[in-house]
């Protein structure tokens, strides 16, 4: 099994390499790929050194699977070229997510939609991933009518430049800016660009991607996405209205049984999920589970996950693992 990691020098790409190592992914050849700027740079993987190559050089090596995390423009240009060479692409960018011919996959929710016809598979937005894993079992049991989500997102979701901005501001150093405003000691209610309807693109991604992954356009979602000066992970406040009433103890049991979810909910002992706890973990942490007392059949909860891991790298590697397990790629 030959695996290419496109964007291997970036934040998500280097996390993909770590996750492949940790999970003992069965590969016998690794091809780290980045831009012309990084060509020849050495990457250490499982104790061996590998030289970074360009996308064109990687295509010529005919990898079985390519895990892409090098931005939308690189994916738009190169994913079809890899696919044409016989490589199955798992793409982290937003380039292919809403293409009706491409599958958008969170393994715990909808891995079964994948088949050998899928040559480019999209990995959802980080904020969407951690939300749908929680929504899925609740929708099956109680049928969701509407979700109101507000996010508190880590700077790592923006990339290396944003992490540098926060660190520089904390150290009092002038440097390049990833955001239009100071992020340290601040909260920025804008993620990605604004659309004509007044929502940001990140908010629209959460809405549209959720419907596509859940395979149900009847679920109404409205979102406010916010950047905060934190690095360990994204947090989300969810208000969920169901068609049917629920028993809170039973609902907790359903969440506790959900693959990929850990319930951390013990207010008496001040236990609830926080980004410092989610950091470097693959699990999605859920807590503050309580009834919305202002409306029937409605729930409030709080969801935290490491956006570089389950929100990006881990999800992509889990898709690749599924492709092998089901012999979609062999
Ligand atoms: P490079 O380091 O050579 O610029 P991040 O989002 O953390 O900044 O990472 C972006 C990743 O995408 C990096 O690995 C970067 O490589 C890679 N990348 C950017 N543009 C291209 C391109 N045209 N071809 C291949 N990789 C690219």
From TrEMBL:
Residues that hold phosphate according to the record: 97
SMART domains hit by this protein: Semialdhyde_dh
Superkingdom: Bacteria
CDD domains: ASADH_C_bac_euk_like, VcASADH2_like_N
UniProt xrefs under InterPro entries: Asp_semialdehyde_DH, Asp_semialdehyde_DH_beta, NAD(P)-bd_dom_sf, Semialdehyde_DH_NAD-bd, Semialdhyde_DH_dimer_dom
Residues bound to NADP(+): 9-12, 37-38, 307
Residues that, per the record, bind substrate: 153, 227
GO molecular function, one term: aspartate-semialdehyde dehydrogenase activity
Pathway: Amino-acid biosynthesis; L-lysine biosynthesis via DAP pathway; (S)-tetrahydrodipicolinate from L-aspartate: step 2/4; Amino-acid biosynthesis; L-threonine biosynthesis; L-threonine from L-aspartate: step 2/5; Amino-acid biosynthesis; L-methionine biosynthesis via de novo pathway; L-homoserine from L-aspartate: step 2/3
Residue numbers annotated as active site: 126, 234
Primary enzyme class: oxidoreductase
Coiled-coil regions listed in the entry: none
SUPFAM superfamilies: Glyceraldehyde-3-phosphate dehydrogenase-like, C-terminal domain, NAD(P)-binding Rossmann-fold domains
Keywords of this entry: Amino-acid biosynthesis, Diaminopimelate biosynthesis, Lysine biosynthesis, Methionine biosynthesis, NADP, Oxidoreductase, Threonine biosynthesis
EC number: 1.2.1.11
Known catalytic reactions: L-aspartate 4-semialdehyde + phosphate + NADP(+) = 4-phospho-L-aspartate + NADPH + H(+)
Every Semialdehyde dehydrogenase NAD-binding domain range: 2-117
Subunit details: Homodimer.
Function per UniProt: Catalyzes the NADPH-dependent formation of L-aspartate-semialdehyde (L-ASA) by the reductive dephosphorylation of L-aspartyl-4-phosphate.
Protein family: Belongs to the aspartate-semialdehyde dehydrogenase family.
PANTHER family: ASPARTATE-SEMIALDEHYDE DEHYDROGENASE, DEHYDROGENASE, PUTATIVE-RELATED
Protein name: Aspartate-semialdehyde dehydrogenase
Gene: asd
